[in-house]
Amino acid sequence: MADKPIATALQDVLSRMKQAAEKANRTHPVRLVAVSKTKPVEALQEAYEAGQRVFGENYVQEMLDKAPALPADIQWHFIGHLQSNKVKAVVESVPNLAMVETVDSTKLADKLNKAVEAYSGRTTPLAVMVQWVNTSGEESKYGVEPSECVALARHIVQNCPKLRLAGLMTIGMPDYSSRPENFTCLAACRDAVAADLLGLGLADPAHSLELSMGMSGDFEQAIEMGATNIRVGSTIFGAREYKPKSPPASPPKQ
Ligand SMILES: *Cc1c(COP(=O)(O)O)cnc(C)c1O
Question: By Cβ atoms counted within 10 A, which residue in 192, 213, 216, 251 is the most buried?
Fold first, then answer.
């Protein structure tokens, strides 16, 4: 079966979001980030023409390639692992970068803060989220443990005046699957961060810190559990085809 047209798929997601919010009596707005990694500029343009303005990319080079080819009123969210040596390029080449959702160290926060400070093309603080990960004892490369969220959030608020702490983000488990406990835990971390900042006189009341959680497979549940920012890719743009890193093996001989 062919994929649905992007505009139709987008409308479906928006109406499912609305239903999920109504079901759970959620009245706060929920932002849809259309995750366009691996998809061509034409696909993003189609979503843009259907009214979508917020797009998420995982790879720096892809965002640098696409942003200049698309309208300037798009709000770009960076949602992948950001290497320190790419920070300057992201900040300076994407003036409409709205948010980096994946800050997972004080070092990265400091780099971003410096880059925004040094770049004269940007006059507003850059919104960032602390990326949380549930390692459950497994090895995980990116994201901070729940116990470290408060310290990283506090560091951003106290030491990074060019950044605005927008909230907390998770992709769920290291393998990108989510469980309800992940959503509950992220909300608990958000509350702990909010209480800490309030205690220091630095708040941001609790309700203003966002929760970025929920993807194609679980965004309705995430909304029911308090998400304010969901990141949906394949349900809007169709399944992703990754380019193989090496040539495919030759087919078996008949
Ligand atoms: C790819 C990706 C998504 C979207 O995943 P889908 O399952 O295609 O909706 C969301 N968040 C992050 C961080 C991603 O890398």
Answer: 213
Structural domains counted in the chain: 1
Residues in contact with ligand 1 by the CB-under-6-Å rule are 35, 37, 58, 79, 171, 215-217, 231-235
Q: Which atom of ligand 1 is nearest to the CA of 219?
A: 9
**Cα(82)–Cα(64) distance, rounded to whole angstroms?**
13
Give the residue among 29, 56, 53, 33 at the shortest CA–CA distance from 208. Answer: 29
User: How many C-beta atoms surround the C-beta of residue 247 within 10 A?
Assistant: 6
Quickly list H helices, 24-135: 41-49, 60-66, 87-93, 106-118
In this structure, is the dihedral angle defined by the CA atoms of residues 233, 237, 239 and 245, taken in order, positive or negative? negative
pLDDT per position as a tens digit, 160-208: 999 999 999 998 776 777 788 889 999 999 999 999 999 988 875 555 8
CA 158 / ligand 1 centre spacing (Å): 31
Q: Structure pTM?
A: 0.91
CA of 202 to the centre of ligand 1 (A): 32
CATH of the domain at 193: 3.20.20.10
Q: Is residue 1 part of a domain?
A: no
Q: Distance, CA 199 to ligand 1 centroid (Å)?
A: 34
Q: What is the DSSP letter of 1?
A: -
Residues in the chain: 254
